[in-house]
């Protein structure tokens, strides 16, 4: 094919888009002979060259976050466990503004833009055929009064409202559960419609965010940990009842 090594690496890492002709040549090299699969991949390559809505936020948002948004937009199922904060996809605007303000340095417009991005991500919930979404929250997440009682009460009510949707599950792991696998930190596991596509693991930490689909040995560990956390939780109905009591306490 007479390609440079750097070109192959950039294509395989997804750092650059690939032309239709280059993709077909690459698939021949990989000895892919299934015509239907070839056409599917060619269609994906064409779609990848279209400008994604989140690309307009590159100046203010971390690359790892934009990569996560790309994956969750294509997902069929998304599993998230949180230990500290309400998941971004479920945050109210007031809650989002309060949390983002703690991490953003620079002009105030950057804060407004990042809040806008977080709100726009929530359009995922409004799609005609949204992915199946599972959220497991440590009790500390819903106890911590970000922005004060009024903001937090509004946020709790938002969780209750979202949990009523057919493809969304919100569960709370109570303090009484004691030590559990989630104490190692928050994580997101994203799955896709095509079983041949590997799941994606996303981890956010003070040391930097990680987005990876190259951890075949670790992903089953996180999927198993997530199911353990669900079993330790109050369950979907019990969690909503618990959230309702919290909202009453904050009234």
What do you see in this structure?
- With 251 residues, the chain is an alpha/beta fold.
- 46% of the residues lie in helices and 12% in strands.
- It has a six-stranded mixed β-sheet with strand order 3-2-1-4-5-6, sandwiched between helices.
- The protein is globular.
Structural class: alpha/beta
First and last CA, distance: 67 Å
- Tell me the strand order in the biggest sheet: 3-2-1-4-5-6
One letter per element, helices H and strands E, the order comes to HHHHEHHEHHEEEEHH
Average pLDDT taken over every residue: 88
β content, as a range? 5-15%
Major sheet: size, sense and barrel closure? 6 strands, mixed
The oligomeric status of these chains comes to: single chain
Cα-based radius of gyration, to the nearest Å: 20 Å
The strand count comes to: 6
Per DSSP, the total helix count is 10
Question: What is the overall silhouette?
Answer: globular
């Amino acid at each position: 094919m007479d390609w440079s090594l750097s070109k192959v690496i950039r294509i395989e890492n997804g750092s650059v888009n690939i032309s239709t002709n280059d993709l077909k040549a690459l698939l021949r090299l990989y000895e892919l002979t299934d015509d239907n699969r070839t056409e599917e991949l060619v269609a994906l390559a064409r779609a990848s060259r279209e400008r994604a809505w989140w690309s307009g936020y590159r100046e203010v948002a971390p690359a790892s976050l934009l990569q996560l948004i790309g994956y969750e937009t294509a997902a069929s199922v998304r599993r998230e466990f949180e230990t500290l904060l309400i998941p971004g996809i479920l945050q109210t605007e007031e809650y989002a503004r309060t949390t983002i303000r703690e991490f953003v340095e620079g002009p105030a417009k950057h804060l407004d833009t990042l809040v806008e991005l977080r709100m726009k991500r929530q359009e995922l919930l409004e799609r005609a055929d949204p992915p199946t979404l599972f959220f497991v929250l440590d009790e500390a997440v819903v106890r911590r009064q970000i922005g004060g009682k009024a903001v937090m009460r509004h946020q709790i009510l938002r969780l209750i409202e979202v949990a009523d949707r057919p493809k969304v599950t919100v569960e709370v792991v109570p303090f009484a559960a004691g030590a559990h696998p989630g104490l190692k930190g928050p994580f997101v596991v994203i799955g896709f419609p095509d079983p041949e596509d590997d799941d994606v693991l996303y981890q956010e930490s003070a040391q930097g965010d990680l987005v990876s689909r190259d951890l075949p040995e670790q992903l089953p560990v996180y999927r198993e940990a997530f199911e353990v956390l669900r079993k330790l939780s109050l369950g979907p109905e019990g969690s909503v009842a618990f959230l309702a009591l919290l909202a009453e306490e904050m009234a």
